[in-house]
Design a protein that fits this description.
This protein is 38% helix and 16% strand. The protein is an alpha/beta fold. The chain has three domains: 62 residues, Orthogonal Bundle (Arc Repressor Mutant, subunit A); 132 residues, Response regulator (Rossmann fold); 133 residues, Response regulator (Rossmann fold, 3-Layer(aba) Sandwich), CATH 3.40.50. The protein has a six-stranded parallel beta sheet, with helices on both faces. Strands 9-8-10-11-12-14 form a six-stranded mixed beta sheet, sandwiched between helices. Strands 1-2 form a two-stranded antiparallel sheet. Helix 1 packs across helix 3, helix 4 runs parallel beside helix 12 and helix 7 packs parallel to helix 8. The protein is globular. The chain starts with 14 loop residues before the first helix and ends in a 9-residue tail after the last strand.
Length: 370
């Protein structure tokens, strides 16, 4: 049984949620006095039982990181010290703190920066362009020595060009993770989302599936690339794409996508489908639960493929066929490339981009229906 850096057994169900909250708190993403998501929201996000969520929260409370207020909720009770302002630091801009992969990506970045005694200042845009502008200005004025950025609403051209130019003119290297902007040229470390999607779609076709539905996110580049791979593969195999069987959503739609009304809508949209591709494992896990609650079993009645290989389910019966996200290695690669950029006066003219090779975790969520 493997253990994480805190000595927690990674195979225990509550540890993924525990690590997620602990990293958010210790990294400063969630600060003293801020309220954690409700138990119900955490249940939905991680597809965990109420008892598993409570076990994770009890552990965090025991360590003094959170405190529960009866009738009010759970709050961060840990204060981050002011630290040494003379220690050099990089900025890390994320689009959304609720990303369940954040602990491993952050750990990868931290493992590299710790060796160089470089701190990490984390900012979260919540996928809002205005917030991104505020944080870019903060890092411009705080003597950050480099930036790692996850693009905000990266499916669209970014309006903060002047701020990025100001950072570059100040010779603050910038590298993107997961995505990049179409109208701003910076290097990036990413998955090959289009190729991953093509491979997953081909797996479904190879197993006899023709009526394939999909759930894609429209406000980030990853969603667009995954859609592109899906339609390219379907077209290459002479398959018809039914637009009515594609569900689009944005960051702001998450609360309604799996509401009671939303689930009814999804059931209607995917009626007649033998398989579904989902934007990520969070969507796949919630969709699996919603369908099984309505008597539709995965993969017997419906096959599902996804992205991230995050294992967001308590059931051992279903293991998603998923494009493997490198997580820790992605953070590590981005941090190492940023350090190299810091030593390169011509970093803007050099190439520090990297694309991870396609890797599909087979799982057991596809049924051969030939």
């Amino acid at each position: 049984m493997s253990e994480n850096r805190n000595g927690k057994n990674e195979n225990l169900k509550y540890v993924k949620l525990y690590n997620w909250a602990r990293t958010l708190i210790l990294s400063g993403v969630m600060r003293y006095g801020e309220k954690l998501p409700s138990e119900h929201m955490l249940q939905r996000k991680f597809n965990y039982s109420r008892q598993t969520v409570r076990t994770a929260l009890d552990e965090l409370e025991h360590e003094g990181l959170i405190s529960k207020v009866r009738g009010s909720g759970t709050y961060v009770s840990f204060r981050i010290g002011t630290g040494n302002n003379d220690v050099p630091h990089i900025g890390l801009i994320l689009s959304y703190f609720a990303d369940y992969m954040f602990p491993q990506i952050y750990a990868g970045i931290e493992s590299v920066m710790k060796e160089q005694n470089i701190g990490i200042d984390v900012a979260v845009t919540k996928n809002r362009i205005n917030d991104e502008a505020v944080f870019l200005e903060r890092f411009l004025n705080s003597n950050a020595i480099g930036l790692i950025v996850e693009g905000t609403r990266s499916a669209f051209p970014n309006p903060n060009i002047a701020m990025y130019d100001a950072l570059a003119k100040k010779n603050i290297p910038i590298i993107f993770i997961h995505n990049h902007y179409s109208n701003i040229k910076f290097d990036s470390v990413e998955m090959q989302d289009c190729k991953c999607s093509y491979s997953l779609t081909e797996l479904l076709l190879d197993n006899g599936h023709k009526d394939i539905g999909a759930v894609f996110k429209y406000d980030d580049m990853q969603g667009m690339e995954r859609y592109k791979g899906f339609i390219q593969c379907m077209a290459d195999h002479g398959m018809r794409i039914d637009d009515d069987r594609i569900q689009w959503y944005s960051t702001r739609d998450m609360d309604t996508l799996f509401s009671r009304k939303g689930i009814v809508s999804l059931m209607r949209r995917f009626n007649g489908c033998s398989a579904i591709m989902t934007y990520n494992d969070e969507i796949a896990a919630q969709l699996t639960t919603a369908f099984e609650n309505n008597g539709i079993k995965v993969p017997d009645d419906l096959s599902i493929v996804s992205f991230d290989n995050a294992s967001l389910t308590e059931t051992s019966a279903i293991s998603l066929c998923s494009a493997d996200h490198p997580k820790f290695e992605l953070g590590k690669r981005a941090a190492r490339n940023l350090l190299r950029m810091m030593d390169d006066p011509n970093w803007r003219e050099s190439n520090y981009s990297y694309r991870f090779p396609v890797s599909i975790v087979s799982g057991n969520s596809i049924k051969d229906i030939h």
